[in-house]
Amino acid sequence: MHLKGCGGGGGCRCAPITSAMSSAAGPDLAEAPEERCFLSTAEAAALERELLEDYRFGRQQLVEWCGHASAVAVTKVFPLPAHSRKQRTVLVVCGPEQNGAVGLVCARHLRVFEYEPTIFYPTRSLDPLHRDLTTQCEKMDIPFLSYLPTEVRLINDAYRLVVDAVLGPGVEPGKVGGPCMRALATLKLLSIPLVSLDIPSGWDPETGGDAEDGLRPDVLVSLAAPKQCAGRFSGRHHFVAGRFVPDDVRRKFALRLPGYTGTDCIAAL
Amino acid sequence: MHLKGCGGGGGCRCAPITSAMSSAAGPDLAEAPEERCFLSTAEAAALERELLEDYRFGRQQLVEWCGHASAVAVTKEYEPTIFYPTRSLDPLHRDLTTQCEKMDIPFLSYLPTEVRLINDAYRLVVDAVLGPGVEPGKVGGPCMRALATLKLLSIPLVSLDIPSGWDPETGGDAEDGLRPDVLVSLAAPKQCAGRFSGRHHFVAGRFVPDDVRRKFALRLPGYTGTDCIAAL
């Protein structure tokens, strides 16, 4: 099974996934595989486990890097203008799982970068990290919407762009609840730009699923490394926020990732 | 008591500390004080408490921002070696140590007392030994001996938060202490930064929310774009 396209510029040649690779529970392959550009859902989970268990990174650290890097990506594509208040407004839609936590961090950093984020976080996680991240946003006076208008024109008029932090890879859409799914239905009709964190919410993380029916983000920020469905991303900008992935881990997963410049935390693909 | 100088460029005028301010346990002042450039040790601790307890930031987050910002201040393709003779049993320290070990950063088992060996082997030294509010007597012999060696350094020295061994308020005996070339103040400059006379002073404080900055009446420089440090 070849990866459909690559999503990366510059003549990236992705290696076909052999049956040996696809059946491996983890990437401990005897032979050195040709590098590839995407991770499957299982590999992404294994990479995260390695960072948490072997490297002893904290989830707080990982979520913070991903959220900060996502905010930096927003500033690159949508720089602040000198005037016009509306040009600073951003709606961040957060789901109840880790993708939503990244969204909360992203909103806070957008605030630090002098944007005016508003958060819609209808289904709240009881997890302490989520609760603390929520408190941090509340203390920094970031408004939380109690409901999301179903009339998409109201969203188009009020915000310059929307950040989709609803569903990450490995989260069953059925688990996130009605309000999130209704929000995604509204976001499909958006005419302002959409930035998806890690994967476009609702896409099958491997195949992309039914692309006509799903979200069509303008910007994708892949966290740690691109997921396989990123091969079907056809928006304007694809960034990877993966500077925190140690070289040894990158090599272990046979990932080809772009070079980062200076102290940048994101790289454009 | 006036703050001795400012350490910041651009004509910063620091307000004198009135007795009302200096006796306050915390910065809940009825009148809005004129902004100033430095924090006392007690205020720095209060600011950190506010971030941890009221804002619910995690210590992991704060330490990560400060460390990252310090690295940005130093920046660009360095090959670090760590001397960490007296290890904390605190889980955060242990995890951060593991992260460094897993990234193949060497840890020295001892620091040469012959400073020439350090001058020859490294391009610069980062001093992350003592912060404000840490009693020098508590950190142990190897750290104090390391500081004695660092005083003789001829390569550049970058101190994190305060030059280790300086009195956090007064700077102490400046001739006897470390003389860093670069100071990276964490969250906000401490009072002793007024006596810093090295080449570069940065503040790594972008994570301090505006409300907290105002509450402590701090004048901090503006940050550019997405920068995490600002030059003073």
TrEMBL record, chain A:
Residues 44-257 form the YjeF N-terminal domain. SUPFAM superfamilies: YjeF N-terminal domain-like (SSF64153). GO terms for molecular function: NAD(P)HX epimerase activity. InterPro entries: YjeF_N_dom (IPR004443), YjeF_N_dom_sf (IPR036652), YJEFN_prot_NAXE-like (IPR032976). It holds the Pfam family YjeF_N. GO terms for cellular component: mitochondrion. Interacts with APOA1. Binds to HDL. May accelerate cholesterol efflux from endothelial cells to high-density lipoprotein (HDL) and thereby regulates angiogenesis. May orchestrate hematopoietic stem and progenitor cell emergence from the hemogenic endothelium, a type of specialized endothelium manifesting hematopoietic potential. YJEFN3-mediated cholesterol efflux activates endothelial SREBF2, the master transcription factor for cholesterol biosynthesis, which in turn transactivates NOTCH and promotes hematopoietic stem and progenitor cell emergence. May play a role in spermiogenesis and oogenesis. This is YjeF N-terminal domain-containing protein 3. It comes from Balaenoptera acutorostrata.
UniProtKB/TrEMBL annotation, chain B:
It comes from the Eukaryota. Residues 78-220 form the YjeF N-terminal domain. Pfam families: YjeF_N. InterPro entries: YjeF_N_dom, YjeF_N_dom_sf, YJEFN_prot_NAXE-like. It comes from Balaenoptera acutorostrata. This is YjeF N-terminal domain-containing protein 3 isoform X2.
